[in-house]
Amino acid sequence: MAGGDGVYRALLRAANAFLQQRRYRAALAVIKGFRNGAVYGAKIRAPHALVMTFLFKSGSLREKLRAIAQATYAHSRNLAYFVFTYKGLMAAQSRLQGKKIPFHAFLAACIGGWLVFGENNPINSQIIMYLLSRILFGLSRLAVEKGYIPQPKQDPFPIVAALVWGTVLWLFEYHRETLQPSLQSSMTYLYEDSEVWHDLSDFLLYNKRTDSK
């Protein structure tokens, strides 16, 4: 027993010593990035899939749990692959040119995005739309910071909020098919299902009646 414990401690010391070697740092960062991508993707997708599945999807409990597991796995896998690809390409470019330049990040991410997120499916679509909204805000702030557009005298956020909500509800009411299915489901629940009821049960307790009354 004591001998086994000694071997374990020796292996642990050797592994920790290996992790501290600078020559392997870039490769190890790629592996750690893969790990972090998988964990983060699972943490983000699992609760979202849980809520959306039980709120809006029909089917048995087994089918719902399978759908949650599949969505979580897909998100976790894609994010892990992307981080692995991005960090690997970043390390390769830096090694080839002897330094890191801003274009490296753009090129590595473009290749990773094409390879990992290029398929048009619900998971990738949600991720791309999430990033797109952040990019628009980021580019707007960068344009002000660089002086390409003047600093607003008043906070423009109220106008942005008004235009975003005005546009999305107009699309929902008159061009619903252009919106993502999960957004259509959310808006149907909020703005259409709230106009239908039969008695107190589906007015306050439930969204829709499940009996045959």
TrEMBL record:
<dbReference type="InterPro" id="IPR019531">
    <property type="entry name" value="Pmp4"/>
</dbReference>
<dbReference type="GO" id="GO:0005778">
    <property type="term" value="C:peroxisomal membrane"/>
</dbReference>
<dbReference type="Pfam" id="PF02466">
    <property type="entry name" value="Tim17"/>
</dbReference>
<protein>
    <submittedName>
        <fullName>PXMP4 protein</fullName>
    </submittedName>
</protein>
